[in-house]
Amino acid sequence: MDALTPIGFIVAGYAAFVTIAAVVGVVLKAPRPRWLDQLAWMLEILAVVLAVGALAGWSSGRKPESLSTFLGYLGALVCLMPLALQSMRNDRSTWSAGVIAAAALATGVVAVRVMMVR
Amino acid sequence: MTQTEPAKTRSGPHLVLLTVYAVFVLAAGSRSLVQVATKFGEAPIAYSLSVVAAATYVAGWFAIRRAAAGSAGIAKVMLWVELAGVVVVGVLSLVVPSWFPDDSVWSKFGSGYGFVPALLPILGLLWLWKGRAAGSTEGDR
Question: In angstroms, rounded to a whole number, what is the distance separating the alpha carbons of residues B127 and B64?
Answer without folding.
Answer: 10
